[in-house]
């Protein structure tokens, strides 16, 4: 945006309109989202999907996950607590999604210094995710350009990861979303930044992980993964702002956030989205 005007550029307006249309389709279609996610966030993730209008299914049995990925609208693979059986289920789900053409999201939680999840993340990176979502340190580690963060906390800034995110998107064919104070989304050619959100989202367990599931829900109804990811990030972070205005702290924010995901409207996105 130019310094002389706060109105969105035409391209920003078009992208926001596409994001709103994707939200409308998500709520109309109620896509089934298959989540292989970490033990800490299962409940919050399922509730976030229900609130936004999707249907969650937490299927992480290896003998079932590949089949289920073929009938789901979207799949989330989150490496937060990748025990042996879940790792096998993730690889089966990714294979099933590939065979069925189901879009799936890779969230490489806490990779870098931890060898088991890092090796798995690199294999999954090369298996055709539609979207890769992480903080700056995770994205750098996934690309082989960094050592990771401090557990789930980033030690790197979004801007530091931006060139690597672009290269990773180009090499993998995935849309790459880097979470931070200003989120970055790129498909290697197009890049968007979303400057919405609230710090309280970082004080609730699952605040980032549930975003990956919401991305999978949007990818289920929007064929352009770049548009789907921008729509997910914009909707999610605007809802966080709405919730923060009513919250007294992290506990009340968590409840208000689910309410806001259910209520966030096209008018809210038009009025609040800081998309460029």
Quick synopsis:
The protein is α/β, with parallel strands linked by helices and 276 residues long.
Task: Walk me through this protein's architecture.
The protein is an alpha/beta fold and 276 residues long. The protein has a single domain (10-272), classed as UDP-N-acetylmuramoyl-L-alanine:D-glutamate ligase, CATH 3.40.1190. It is 53% helix and 13% strand. The protein is built from eleven helices and eight strands. It has helices spanning 10-29, 42-52, 62-71, 84-100, 115-125, 136-142, 158-172, 209-221, 225-244, 250-263, 266-272; strands at residues 32-36, 55-57, 74-78, 104-107, 131-135, 175-179, 183-186, 191-194. It has an eight-stranded mixed beta sheet with strand order 2-1-3-4-5-6-7-8, sandwiched between helices. Helix 2 (42-52) runs parallel beside helix 8 (209-221). The longest helix has 20 residues, at 10-29. The radius of gyration is 17 Å and the shape is globular. Residues 1-10 and 149-154 have low confidence and may be disordered.
Main attributes?
UDP-N-acetylmuramoyl-L-alanine:D-glutamate ligase, eight-stranded mixed β-sheet, globular
What secondary-structure arrangement, pairings included, does this model have?
Blueprint: H1 10-29, E1 32-36, H2 42-52, E2 55-57, H3 62-71, E3 74-78, H4 84-100, E4 104-107, H5 115-125, E5 131-135, H6 136-142, H7 158-172, E6 175-179, E7 183-186, E8 191-194, H8 209-221, H9 225-244, H10 250-263, H11 266-272
Parallel strand pairs: 1-2, 1-3, 3-4, 4-5, 5-6
Antiparallel strand pairs: 6-7, 7-8
Helix pairs in contact: 1-8, 1-9, 2-8, 2-10, 3-4, 6-7, 8-9, 9-10
